[in-house]
Design brief:
The chain has about 325 residues and is α+β, with helices and mostly antiparallel strands. It has three domains: about 1-30; about 45-100 and about 235-315, 2-Layer Sandwich (GMP Synthetase, Chain A, domain 3); about 100-235, no CATH class. It has helices at about 5-65, 140-185, 190-255, 295-300, 305-310, and strands spanning about 75-85, 85-95, 100, 130-135, 270-275, 280, 285, 285-290, 315. A five-stranded mixed sheet has the order 1-2-5-8-9. The protein has a two-stranded antiparallel sheet with strand order 3-4. It is rod-shaped.
């Protein structure tokens, strides 16, 4: 029996398997090398990204120092990160009520209950204004702010104390008048003259107390209007500060945006200013601006100006 053809076939098969294994190993080795090269390249890109973001972060920090701070608002820190496929994000943290918060809420003392027959309304709208002091203020400014705060708090306390005293007095007058009117209906005629005189005195006293109450109401209303104006001024200053911060950062991106070469052209550069938006409930919203890298490059190359860049940005509060 001739086994040569079978042996030759087996031999050829073994050679093919050997070549296949060699080819597979070569392919795997090439793939591993390619993955390693890609990983190294990506890590190099991230290293470059870190450097560029750090540099831009420092430039932004230097730029916003030129914006005058307020007692209520101040950018206390900036940081940055990169979201792959989305772009770079710069976050500015506002030190609202920065460093030291001297806010004391003084509860309004309850008003003494009135007699059912006494139709006296007595409302005092009074809140102590907020004070926010930064440790960066010098010692004299700090002590002066404390002094003003204590004066307003004491003044507010005096008004409420006067409010309670007038309320008690009106309540007593109403009770005495009611008692005198009741007796007037049940006493002899000779005693009615004295009761009527007493009622007349009580009425005169009530008129005088009501006059004092009216003056106090006007005083309280004046204080409330003054505080509302102060709050409106502070809100305006706060909004103006953050508008200037956003404008300064946009100017910075226009001047130095070409330095963010590691950020792909089809991605974005976002700016988040913490607690710079409107107050919703017990918190202030963040302001978010999203710029396309293409628009930033266009501004850096003087194809558009910073106002146009800001207008083209997607912005919202969150």
């Amino acid at each position: 029996m001739n086994t040569y053809p079978v042996f030759n076939t087996v031999k050829n098969s073994m050679k093919w398997v050997a070549k296949s294994k060699k080819g597979i190993c070569s392919t795997l080795l090439s793939s591993s090398i390619l993955l390693a090269v890609n990983a190294h390249a990506q890590q190099q890109d991230f290293d470059d990204m870190h450097k560029q973001l750090d540099i831009m972060n420092n430039i932004i920090q230097s730029a916003i120092k030129s914006v005058p701070k307020t007692m209520r608002s101040k950018i206390s820190s900036t940081n940055s990160l990169y979201l792959q496929g989305q772009g770079a994000v710069f976050t500015l943290t506002s030190g609202r009520y920065s460093s030291f918060d001297l806010r004391t809420v003084i509860p309004t003392a309850p008003v003494a209950p009135m007699s059912p027959d006494a139709h006296f309304s007595f409302n005092l709208h009074d809140e102590v204004d907020d004070f926010e002091i930064s440790f960066e203020s010098n010692e004299q400014d700090y002590e002066h702010a404390i002094e003003i705060f204590e004066q307003q708090r004491e003044h507010s306390r005096d008004i409420r104390s006067e409010q309670r005293e007038l309320a008690y007095e009106l309540r007593d007058i109403a009770r005495e008048s009611k008692d005198a009117q009741y007796q007037l209906r049940h006493v002899e005629e000779k005693e009615k003259k004295a009761l009527k005189a007493e009622l007349k005195k009580l009425e005169s006293k009530r008129v005088a107390v009501e006059k004092n109450k009216t003056l106090l109401d006007k005083k309280a209303k004046s204080m409330q209007v003054k505080q509302e104006k102060q709050q409106a001024i502070k809100a305006e200053q706060r909004n103006s500060y953050f508008d200037k911060i956003a404008s300064t950062v946009v100017d910075t991106l226009c001047m130095y945006g070409n330095g963010l070469k590691a950020v792909p052209k089809d991605e974005n550069v976002s700016l988040i200013i913490k607690t710079a938006g409107k107050k919703v409930g017990n918190r202030y919203q963040d302001l978010v601006f999203v710029f396309s890298k293409k628009d930033i490059n266009a501004c850096s190359n003087d194809k558009i100006d910073s106002k146009k860049l800001l207008a083209k940005a997607h912005n919202y509060s969150f």
